Each structure stands twice: as C-alpha cells, then as structure tokens.
Amino acid sequence: MTAVTSSLDTLRMVRTGADPLKASGPLVARPPADTSGYSRITVEPVAPTIGADIAGVRLSGSLDDETMAEIRRALTDWKVLFFRDQDISRDDHRAFAARWGELEQHPFFKHMMPGQSDVDVATFAKNATTAGYENNWHNDVTWHEYPSFAAVLRAVEIPAVGGDTLWADTGAAYDLLPQDIKDEIDNLTAEHDWINSFGRLMDPDVVAKLRPEFPAIEHPVVRVIPETGRRALFVNVSFTQRILGMSTQRSDELLRLLYRHVMRPEFQVRLRWRKNTIAFWDNRACQHYASSDYHPNQRMMERISIVGDRPVGIGV
After folding, report:
1. Residue 256: φ, ψ to 5°
2. Residue 20: is it exposed, middle or buried by C-beta count within 10 angstroms (0-12/13-18/19+)?
3. CB-CB contact of 169 with 286 (8 Å)
4. In angstroms, how far is the first alpha carbon of the chain from the final one?
5. Three-state DSSP class for 65?
6. 138, 230, 284, 299: which is the annotated catalytic residue?
7. Do 77 and 61 form a contact (C-beta atoms < 8 A)?
8. Is 138 a catalytic residue?
9. Which pick of 33, 101, 172, 299 has the fewest CB atoms within 10 Å?
10. Which residue out of 77, 140, 169, 175 is catalytically annotated?
11. In the chain, how many H helices and how many E strands?
C-alpha cells in the first residue's frame, strides 16, 4: 500500500461532521524520487515532499548541460530549491534565470513600487516607510494567460529575524484531498484576475489603461504538470475570483475549502533567509507566502521570473 493510499484511508476514517476537511491523524503525501543519482549537485530534502537544499554548484558563471539537467530534475521533484552563499551579481542572476526560458516583464510593479530599474528584475525593497504586503498564499501572475513557469529570488538585504518565505506543495495538497472533492473539482475552470489585488494598489487611471491588455482569464482548477503528469491545485486566494459553472455560494465554499487545505503545515516548507541565499521554485506546482513580520526593519529581495505556458487541465 502506498503512502498516499494509506494516508487517504486514514483521513477518510476520521472525517466527521459537516466539514469535509475536519480530520486528524497521519497526512503523508507521496514523496519524490530518492536523492541518489546526482553527480554534479547534492540534494538534501528540507521537508517530506517540498523544498531541498542544493550544494556543490555556483550559480555565477556558466553551468554545463549536465548540471542544468540535474537542477531541473531536482526542481521537478522538490518544487523549490535553496542555494546558500551565492554571492552573485544581478547579471549572473539574470543569466541563470535566462537558461530556463524567456524572462518575464511584470507589467504592474513599475506603477506600484519605487526603485524598479530593470524590466525583468522585480526589486522588493521594504523598510520603515514601505511595508510588505505579499503575505497571502499565491502562485505568481495566474491572472496572465501564461503564468510564470518558475522564479529565482535572491536575498540582497535581510532583517536579523523575520521575513521568512513559505511554500506549499499544491500537488501533495491535491493528492490528499478526499476523493469526493477531487471528483467535484477535476474538470472545473476558475476565473483569475488582478483587479482586486494589484488593481487596488494602483491609480484608477493606470488601472483603466492596463485593463484592456490584461482581462480576466480562465484556468483549470486542477492543472497537470507536463513533465510528470502530476496533478496540482491551481487556485489561490490572491487572484482566483470564482469557479465557473456553479452558484456563487458553492464557488465561495469550495474555494475556501481548497485554500484552507493548501495551508496545512504538512504540505509546507519554510525558509529562513540569509544574505546571498537564492530560492528557485516551480510556480506551477507550489504556492508561496512572504511573512510580513519584520516591519520597520529593512528587507530587499530581487526576483526574476521565467515565462510559462498556458495551464492544461485533466481532460485536455
């Protein structure tokens, strides 16, 4: 009996009352492949299904194809990779990200955050006058037709304590849903939009100008990761507006349930940043949350994202 089947059976046995997620006991998701077979890097898991420390590689300079292939394998297995003591330049940061695909140019940050000097680098500079607001669980830019494939985030300046980032494994979250919930959501579609998030932080004139270029978009509630065939939840509290084809009440109930499920600690990994740490995550297969517990201290991060493809659902 697999870990997934065993834990799902346990979860079903202890479900009680009207809350379909009211349960306790083992909640053990399917682990990735083992960490053997690497020769260019070392992979040390941080949590059972998500997050791994990567050593033996410098992200500055050129990386050979074999090393890149091992990093790709680790990313697919562990969803977010942590590289410590990477004292690299912005150009090095950009060169590494560009090995994975076209670099994303976020259309809103220049209107919201001061100090954006390069269109493909998002600078998150927080201090006594500019507090963090990224403390909601989300996949990046799901309001776009082509949400990010991945992101490379570099710690430039960090507070002495606080400012951690958390990631949640949305594939494990899907695997450990009760079967009746899976049956309900497997072929559903949801609307995603930026108007109630970024839109509220920009001047109305800017919103009106950007709106025709970035309308609301529809994506499957459950997307399939093409390399593995794994299913992952693809709704998030920051950008998902509603599930199509059902009443507002049921859409709201179902989204709240899925959001709460993703927030289970069993699906999460937490990173305590140090200067020159880099996190590289698969935006398709996990959500993230930046803890905003360090104000008024300074925290500066730089993120470069890679353009992805249009999400594909189960029935496609």
Report:
1. -60, -40
2. middle
3. yes
4. 30
5. helix
6. 138
7. no
8. yes
9. 33
10. 140
11. 8, 15
CB 266 within 8 A of CB 203: no
Choose, from 144, 154, 223, 288, the residue flagged as catalytic.
288
Low-confidence winner among 15-19, 74-78, 235-239, 264-268 (lowest mean pLDDT): 15-19
Evaluated on CA atoms 200, 205, 210, 212, the torsion sign reads positive
Question: Which residue type is seen at 51?
Answer: G
Q: Is residue 264 classed as helix, strand or coil in its secondary structure?
A: coil
- Count of CB atoms situated within 10 Å of the CB of 271: 20
C-alpha 113 chain-centroid distance: 21
Strand, helix or coil for residue 67: helix
CA-CA distance, 130 to 113, in Å (whole number)?
9
Q: Take residue 66 and report the two structure tokens written for it.
A: 């074999």
pLDDT at 117 over 80: no
Cis peptide before 215 (omega within 30 of 0): no
Give me 305's structure tokens.
Answer: 């994202």
Question: Among 113, 136, 80, which Cα is nearest to 277's?
Answer: 80
The Cα 180–Cα 162 span in angstroms is 39
Q: Is 261 a catalytic residue?
A: no
User: Of the candidates 289, 276, 282, which has an alpha carbon nearest to the alpha carbon of residue 134?
Assistant: 289
Cα dihedral sign, 56-59-63-68: positive
Amino acid type, 24: S
Using only C-alpha atoms, what is the Rg of the chain? 19
Instruction: Report residue 168 as tokens.
Output: 């949640």
pLDDT of residue 275: 93
| DSSP-assigned letter for residue 31 | P
d(CA 38, CA 69): 10
Q: What is the pLDDT of residues 186-210, one digit of tens each?
A: 999 999 998 888 778 788 988 898 8
Q: Running DSSP on this structure, what letter comes out for residue 47?
A: S
Interatomic CA distance for residues 77 and 178, integer angstroms: 23
Task: Round to whole Å and give the CA distance between 230 and 234.
Answer: 12
Nearest to 285 by CA among 202, 222, 200, 216: 222
